[in-house]
Specification:
Blueprint lengths: L8 E2 L2 E2 L34 E6 L4 E5 L12 H13 L8 E3 L2 H4 L13 E3 H11 L2 H12 L2 H14 L22 H14 L11 E4 L2 E4 L11 E9 L3 E10 L2 E10 L2 H16 L4
Antiparallel strand pairs: 1-2, 3-4, 3-11, 5-6, 7-8, 9-10, 10-11
Helix pairs in contact: 1-4, 3-4, 4-5
């Protein structure tokens, strides 16, 4: 999901201590071949799934957590994961300028509208992805890191397998409609946990309620930020074929929780369900 309130940026990204909420599985040491033949089952359109994990990654509650689902813009968590790895390797920095191709600029909304043939700072692309879920920036990042979106998607799937996301396949960097792009609530939780534990310095981006770019203010897609006590990240997603998706993390009184809801019937219904699960957890009811 997106995030809470802004934190300052430095050369290595926003400063923040690593939350204790860890990945449910540890990443494998080596990245497998980029040729991945794994083919998950076809997902159910607007299929409902739910998963609640405590701060140690222990399952508290679930419903259809391993059923195939469409990730929609939850995909962008993996896009950012690979971008952060590229920064870690020294291939890019937050200050780097990356080109915006005609393909990137032509992606449908949500987008921030950078014209083809221009460039955008990596940090602006990160904010656009984490806060606003911008499809144009997803493609720009994919092309900058891997040369093409197809090559990047192969890396995404390979990384998913390395992280233990055994029922996930990616075919694009944005999450735009494609029936081949499949995941599960449990795999999404693994990705969210890995992102938090591997790259804590970037988590404040997911906690921002808005960001400014070229004189415009873009509001976060995650409406729980600043409205539900303790909610601090991570990402929303929506397609007509997926329904309304959200992975949310929260921390209160030293206790942390992650809630994944896929296939919500409306944005309001999804947000209400996630909020109720968070509140039940802190009340000791789940």
């Amino acid at each position: 999901m997106a995030g809470a309130s802004a934190a300052g940026t430095a050369a290595g990204g926003p400063g923040a201590g690593a939350p204790a909420l860890a990945a449910a599985v540890q990443p494998a040491a080596a990245l497998p071949s980029l040729t991945v033949s794994y083919a998950p089952a076809a997902a159910e359109q607007r299929g409902k799934s739910m998963l609640v994990l405590d701060g140690s990654g222990r399952e508290i509650d679930s419903f259809n957590a391993d059923a195939p689902r469409y990730p929609a813009s939850l995909t962008k968590m993996m896009t950012l994961y690979l971008l952060f790895e590229a920064i870690e390797r020294g291939e890019l920095s937050l200050a780097s300028e990356i080109p915006v191709s005609a393909r990137a600029a032509s992606r449908p909304p949500a987008r921030i509208g950078v014209p083809a043939g221009t460039t955008v700072r990596v940090e602006d692309a990160v904010q656009a992805l984490a806060v606003r879920s911008a499809n144009d920036m997803a493609v720009a990042v994919a092309e900058a890191v891997a040369g093409s979106e197809d090559a990047f998607a192969a890396r995404m799937t390979a990384k998913a397998q390395a992280l233990g996301m055994s029922r996930t396949r990616f075919v694009n960097a944005s999450g735009l409609s494609d029936t081949r792009q499949v995941t599960t609530a449990r795999d999404i939780a693994r990705l969210a946990g890995a992102l938090r534990s591997r790259f804590p310095q970037y988590l404040p981006y997911f906690g921002r309620t808005s960001f400014s770019f070229q004189g415009r203010v873009f509001e976060a897609t995650n409406k729980l930020l600043g409205r539900v006590e303790g909610v601090d990240g991570l990402k929303t997603g929506y397609l007509s074929m997926s329904g309304y998706n959200l992975v949310a993390t929260a921390s209160r009184g030293g206790r942390q929780v992650m809630v994944v809801v896929l296939g919500g019937t409306t944005e309001a219904a999804r947000d209400r369900e996630v909020t109720e699960l968070i509140e039940r957890y802190y009340a000791g009811g789940v």
